[in-house]
């Protein structure tokens, strides 16, 4: 799911997202004020409405840029009336308050709601199309075969949780500089997580669930923060030299995450650790639980 996908779905189906506004599309990528805005609508009162789209979490830098542009627009076109709406997958409360205090409306569009809208209109995400270069997942095959053991005491799969209010997981998983090699903190089970085990990257929050399948490539050890990943921490990261593992991304699930609400409805996963105690970073997955989860990957 690219930022362009979210833009396209809003532009093509505004009635699903803004049902009371009567939006009519004027143009996508409309040039105004020295830059191109993502979408320009006209509402039922003939007012011009600018939509700016950000994938993942709305960062502090993006908030400032949008506020600056909105101020510039109002100063350059003082007699024209423009409203602005900022759409993002995750909008932290403090940034919502900042933008709304200067007149910019904020609309949070969770991954699940965007995916449901795409499904409703049979829209294929750009990174799901054949012309888009695949990631390492193309060689994964049947995921259930990644773990051979059937002994539930022999843990070989782990959930690695991240909070989207603190770390921009969605954009980190799609970053070309990071590629298929990603690192994650290990705060629990440091002696049990091993090279060769399977990792499931879990995003917490309203759209909680599994967003990537990985293979753990190193035992936990002290590692410095990697520059390509550091930029996705919100605020200052205090995790410069912490215990981490290196992982290879085998399959990205951003467009079709395995959501928590799906897993909670399965009797076989009634004891899944993250569903019972969601505070923490690292959670064991029993092999019987893995066999159930792997059906969705």
From TrEMBL:
SUPFAM superfamilies: PUA domain-like. GO terms for molecular function: DNA binding; endonuclease activity. Keywords: DNA-binding. InterPro entries: Endonuclease_NucS, EVE_domain, NucS_C, PUA-like_sf, tRNA_endonuc-like_dom_sf. Residues 157-295 form the EVE domain. The keyword DNA-binding applies. It holds the Pfam family NucS_C. Residues 3-110 form the Endonuclease NucS C-terminal domain. This is Uncharacterized protein. It comes from candidate division LCP-89 bacterium B3_LCP.
